[in-house]
Amino acid sequence: MPIPSAISTLGDLRRAVERGEIRHRNVHEEVRDNLIEKLRAGGTLFPGIVGYDDTVLPQLVNALLSRHHFILLGLRGQAKTRLLRALVTLLDDVIPVMPGCEINDDPLQPICGSCRAQVAEAGDRTPIAWLERDARYVEKLATPDVTIADMIGDIDPIKAARAGLQLSNELTMHYGLLPRANRSIFAINELPDLAGKIQVGLFNILQEGDIQIKGYPVRLPLDVMMAFTANPEDYTARGKIITPLKDRIGSEIRTHYPASRGDAQTITAQEAWMVRAGAAPRVEVPTFVAEVVEEIAFQARQDRRVDKRSGVSQRLPISVMENVISNAERRAIVGGEDMAVPRVTDVYAALPSMTGKFELEYEGELKGAETIARELVRNAVANVAEGYLSHLDPRRVIEWFDLGGSLQLADTMSAADVLTHARAVQGLVDLAHEAGIAKQAAAPMLAAGVDFVLEGLYATKKISRSDERGYHASDTPVRRPSREPSLEDEPRVQSGGKKKYYN
After folding, report:
1. Are residues 127 and 46 in the same domain?
2. Which of 208, 296, 312, 342 could form a disulfide with 328 if both were Cys (CB 3.0 to 4.6 A apart)?
């Protein structure tokens, strides 16, 4: 709702609350009430959150309905921070506050000394201000250098000197992040990185709902919803969540990576920079290329040479997709084409956006990140190609290579050049059409289809590929049919007295 211009004083606010025009409630009740309204209305609770509808979101809804402080526990790149920031949509558009107050004090129930004194002096004539909901989300990345003064507060001798006050006066308090998040949502990312003694400082706010700053005999009853994120403790070697703090957190909610390739594609399409503006060629990404990009992450997460405890972030396919499109753009710009269509071979050009996104086990370190990345791409192509080519008959194409043919292509070749070379291979263009490329498709799209068929046959080991010869007949040796030795075979005696027959 817009800021109520008719309510400008404490008296106006009291009368509006009595008439029911404004609801006076704490943050947990506010979030709960607004969540209930959203649930009744139906639709999407948290726009932009994909793949959690049946797992994470029901648990989060239960935590919010229970008025719990909660923690999101999961590996990197699982949308934990995005989910926390989406909670802002459950807050009221505006709330009344004391003007100029550092802790967003409630005019009806002020807790800081200066606001109480102001209300006592002016009464219903006390002016009020309005705070919008976007300003009511406070986020802190936990780092080892965070102090209790940063989080809770400290004595401010400069404030005392300027006001001529004794240091024992509560008006000399310097408020930390937590008091400044009063009547808001306060999120702490990477909670285990917070030093143990700082975690102890959060005990009271989670259980009793108040804090105490330094030696002041004053307890501030804050109105805060606390939310945390963390990686699983078996991965986070930098620190841990102390047990008494875990005990005070109402709900522990486990996040996860996308369960299906479709969900992963939706996330990448939402997050990656795929729509390029300006004078660049128009970009059109084939479905099979998008599937290959996502499948790389799925392959990496199950590869024994990749560290499972570290995880493979969803940022990997997002970064790879952006690099793949850029390689296609570069080719289209140099070749004077008006449409940039990524090919599967462009994924190999995107290795720099891939190798830094996963941690390797000892066996993987021996091979090297780039070698592992290439193998992941090949496995991803093989997996996706099975869905497109398994019902097709590629024998004509394979026979052409078996008869000595070879095809040298490069990711810098224009679509016209790729198709010129491809038409020399019997059945190759027809196979691309059968795999899903429309007959009337533009040359760049057809070239991408041809490239996918060739890479699919290579990934499934039906043909081979090398830098010198390009695509050629499979290097896998064909086993000759065995037969029993005959009398015409000359017996030869090896060392050890055993006979071996040579044909």
Report:
1. yes
2. 342
pLDDT at 217: 72
The verdict on 380 and 310 lying in the same domain is yes
**String of DSSP letters for 188-255:** EESGGGS-HHHHHTTHHHHHTSEEE-TT-S-EEE--EEEEEEE--TTT-TT----HHHHHH-SEEEE-
Structure tokens given for 179? 């008091």
Tokens of 228: 């945390």
Full domain range(s) for residue 149: 10-254
80 with 227: CB under 8 angstroms?
no
Backbone angles phi, psi at 252, to 5 degrees: -110, 115
pLDDT exceeds 60 at position 124: yes
For 305-324, what is the mean pLDDT? 94
Question: Same domain, yes or no, for 311 and 215?
Answer: no
Summarised one tens digit per residue, pLDDT across range 127-162 is 999 999 999 999 999 988 899 889 988 876 666 667
307 with 456, same domain: the answer is: yes
H or E, element range at 266: helix 261-271
User: Residue 501 is encoded by which pair of tokens?
Assistant: 């027959």
Does 496 reside within a domain?
Answer: no
500 assigned to some structural domain? no
Q: pLDDT tens for residues 347-390?
A: 999 999 999 999 999 999 999 999 999 999 999 999 999 999 99
What's the pLDDT at 372? Answer: 96
Residues 285, 449 contacting (CB under 8 angstroms)? no
Average of pLDDT values for 84-103? 94
